[in-house]
Amino acid sequence: MINYLILISLILILGILIYLLFSIKNKESSEKGGNKNIQNKLDEVSNDINKIENDLASVTTPINELNRFLGGNVTTGRLGEWSLESIVQDIMPNNSYKFQAQINPDSADRVDCAISTAEGFIVPIDSKFYAGQYQNYESSSSDNDRKKVLRDLRTAVLRDAEDISKKYMLQNTTSNYVVLYIASEKLIDLVDKIDDLRQECLTEKNTLILGPNTLAAFLDTVRVGHHYLKLNETATKVAKVVRGIQKEFSNFDSSTEDVVKRLDGALKDVQKLQTRINVLGSKLEKGSESLEEES
């Protein structure tokens, strides 16, 4: 459609230029020395036409690239991967995800992203981009054509859901479901037009279909789990330190009790010694008085 518009625009521009050319030719031919002016004008018009052709070529190239990009090839898949990477990096902690991860050591298959949950399981996420089906749906001129596109989209989604679950689900390693990420809310709207497709993918293929918005909400829930896990780990460390301090205080309390008991015993010994000293002093005093009397 875009290429047709460019072609029509080019034809209109060339028509205007040709009209201007003949107008200039007729005007200049009625004047003296018109041949030279006509040649100059022709050269200017020729230069303008060449410039327009170059500009149109520079515009057509990226448009063709965009059409190829949206045509369902490998580059389109990279668009989904870039979108997935951007969302994951914005939400998840750095050590909780891995891109192009090999989940099963016995297989060479690599999932686009592997998310680690707080419980230690891996959630495989693989991105898909059904740009061809969306383009066909938008260009459909009848309900029958649109229904056919939706049937084709249903078949493609179910096929991909089964493929992802078979490749990346691993017992005791991953969660009991995988995520099929579709990097376009417009495509998600098409998926929602297909009755029971989401439910069928989840119950029969163990696959959860998510778009950009729902993926962000899902990852935020996983991130909160990591947050609480970190809090629990911190609380456990704090509790361990408190128990250690409590034990030391208990030992210190026992030590002070022993010291008090020893001090009490020593005080009693000192009191007994003081008593004996007092008795001895009294006897010495009496003996001294007796000696003085005899003298």
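(ticket continues) Second input and output from the same batch:
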Amino acid sequence: MTAQNRKRKIRRKNTRRRSTPRRTIRRGDARRRSTKRRGARRRSTKRRGARRRSTPRRTTRRRDTRRISTKRRDTRRRGNPRINIKKDNRKGLVKCPAIKKTSENEATINDKEKIKDKDVNVFVINLKKHADRWKKYKGNPNYKRFPAVIGADLPADNEYLKGKLVMMWNASDKQRRNVVGCYLSHVNVLKRIVKQKLNKTIILEDDCQIDTKELNKINLNKLPQDKMIYFGGTLRSMTFKTKGWDINRTRKTLVCDKNKSTLNKIVPGKFKIGGAHAYYYPTWKSAENILKHLDSKERVRAIDSEHALIQKNNPELLDSFMYPALGYLVLEQAQKGFSGQYGFDRNMKYY
């Protein structure tokens, strides 16, 4: 073998050695790409096939659940005679529409008329420093001023300030005193009602008014006589983090009368009534029951939080409200109060 042939063989071997890894790398990349593409195609075919096979099954399941849910709703309505649609239609009651306006309450409020039922008592909790809020009640014999407890003047050793009233750990001393003063003010009204044995008593905060024209349409004697009744408040979800809760959906489940306010039941687990600016005690015994309940607790919360707990755990003391509201906030004054920081972004007449 000549020297030239040997050199050619060596060159061929070297070229093969150099080319093989390059070719394998290129082929490997191509294979990997092809496998990805083939895998993607296979996945797409699986998805399409799954969709084609699963669509009829899903539609049937959805239809079945809808049928079951409607049956459950029917059984609930049949089991509760007070929410019977047929009976309500005969009485002229309808489902409440959704509310979009936010300033309708101030345009329609009418508290200039006198309350026809002379046995009705209306107490307005008012601070001395808020004399400007009391001006709107002057000249109207329906309202009686009730002096509020000034939280800033409470001694440092007050049992509620020391820890009997539960609040957030980061609440300021000023906020804590305001909440304690508000709680004690409402409790003091209850004590007067029980002491003087007053029936048909409405309790208001000084940023709230009563629509006496609408109140005169209600026969208070036909309302439940053994429980507290909300005359105004706010529709709220059970927790602040409740997903999917919508106030207009809740309004649609309520029952309304086109001509006057209607008694509705609170549904624990679905919604609650917040606030404490307008509520009614038909008898002094109903007030005494609430007072005994509050006194029996080792620790308490803000008055509106206590009302919310009673709705959930003690419906025998509080389970109903009038809708639309008979007493509702004057928004300009409510937003300036110590609880105005939480905001009032909805029409208080419609909770």
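Agent notes: The mean pLDDT is 78. Residues 1-79 form one domain. Closing as not reproducible unless the customer responds.
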